[in-house]
Amino acid sequence: MSEKSVYHASIKELPEDERPQEKLIRYGAGSLSNAELLAIIIRTGTRDATSVEVGRKIIEYLDNDLSYFHQVDVLELKRNPNLSGVGIVKACQIKAAIELGLRTKQQDIANMKVSSPQDVVDLLMDEMQYLKQECFKTILLDTKNKVIKVEEISLGTLSSSLIHPREVFVKAIRQHAASIILAHNHPSGETEPSAEDRHITKRLVEAGELLGISVLDHIIIGRGTFLSFKQQKIL
User: What is the enclosing helix (H) or strand (E) of 100?
Assistant: First the structure.
């Protein structure tokens, strides 16, 4: 029997208990593997592979790290020779589903209480660790350290000209924030703060003191790791 002959051309050829959609209906989405969830999104396979097998190839391509989905380009999925069966339509379906999940998570952060740097990392790591550009965000907090909103201040190489106190604190003032936490990523994956990182932090802390809005911390997001200015006693 050739290797191709063991593949199923259609998901309908699988036993009913192995069909992702039927499993989801019967047992809930939590019962499905990542490949099976992708199979539901992309719907159809190829002549040589079921949608589940196509989904498995995608998961393997991402080294089983779903968070990397945020940074994978649609054309990257389409062009990869190891991902046969993933055309532009399927690639767009996957990206749209991932974006919906991200937006759902962002809506869920309202009133989340921040009590440690790890809380900020849990909030931002998935979204920021694979960004190819530096992204600077502020987490706006109320008087009880509950999250009011997460604001993106700039995207690109960090500099004092981009991270101006006016741009940072006008959003905090509009949202009646009592304090803020600064956060940005390093595309290199390293978390050692640069001289510019330190300068920007010092400048924003001083501006916050004048405005009565405390800067509680500055978190640098790396590849699966982070640095807290407060924990390192830099702030």
Answer: helix 88-107
